Amino acid sequence: MVSLNPPTDEELTRRAQVGETAALGLLLARHQAPMRAVALSLLGYGPDAEDAVQDAALTALRRIGDVRDPSAVGAWLRAIVRNASRTRLRETRETPGLDGLDHLRLREQAPSQPERLIEEHAMRDWIWDAVDELPPQLRLVLMLRHFSGVTSYREIAAVCEVPVGTVRSRLNQARGKMAQVLLSTAARTHDDASALAKESRHEAVETLQASERGALPREISELWPAETELVGPLSRPGERTHPVPVMRHMLESGVRQYLRHVVASRDIIIWEMDVTNPIGATNPCPPTIAWLMFREKGRVQRLRLIFPEPSR
């Protein structure tokens, strides 16, 4: 005879810790209301409270194995929400709030024990596989908000050419879908996300160096076919603008770009650059530029240059 009594928190937690994704889903659903109550008490009604709850759910998904007292998992979940909410209160500028994902950037110089390094790489691969499962519109806002230097809702809205409210809505959808995808792919073998980022970094460096030499080698020029279109503030209104002449013009003006960071999914790539201007420039270029590229079969179909707001 099947028991009619629902499983306890302790039972669900232990099942989730051994990889039963449905148990974790039930656990999060059961505690959603008290988690939201914590966020509302600290942040008030509004999108920040909802963001904090969703960030906490993703953190719980990744860290359920850390729970030492499964019977007290409710307090553990509320603590995660409380920490996420307090972090938002401390922020002076809108910065990535998807708790725990910032460390998934490849830290080439950071010391680490081999076991920890393997764990971080495996986690990054899992996260980026989930990112690539998102529809392009949702993936773009998530990549900008949580992995790039273009983080404010206003900036993202300008890049995506949508209202700020749409950005918030897409981020909420993206986080919700991320939680679902992460749950369903925890046991899957994941692609090497660092290899994709490394390849994109190499392409960026080669593109900059080849531009300075005045000629793009074949393997780089293939990234920029004739149909590639530059959009944004440096494009020419009413006509198709190819990126290469614009790169050349910037170099001839004495502007130099230096690669700082790469964010790479399968078909959306972001190259973040530091910029130097010639001495005495009357119309200097902003100190940072982000290249947002949309690719198809490896080739850039559309490039948007973004000038992120300086940190305050």
Write a structural description:
This protein is of the alpha+beta class. It has three domains: 1-90, RNA polymerase sigma factor, region 2, helix turn helix motif (Rna Polymerase Sigma Factor, Chain: A); 112-191, Arc Repressor Mutant, subunit A, CATH 1.10.10.10; 193-306, Nuclear Transport Factor 2, Chain: A. 53% of the residues lie in helices and 12% in strands. It has eleven helices and five strands. The protein has helices at residues 9-17, 21-43, 47-63, 73-90, 114-133, 136-147, 153-160, 164-185, 193-213, 218-221, 243-252, and strands spanning 229-231, 256-264, 268-276, 288-296, 299-306. Helix 3 (47-63) crosses helix 4 (73-90), helix 3 packs parallel to helix 8 (164-185) and helix 7 crosses helix 8. The longest helix is centred in the first third of the chain and has 23 residues, at 21-43. It is elongated, with a radius of gyration of 22 Å. Residues 92-119 have low confidence and may be disordered.
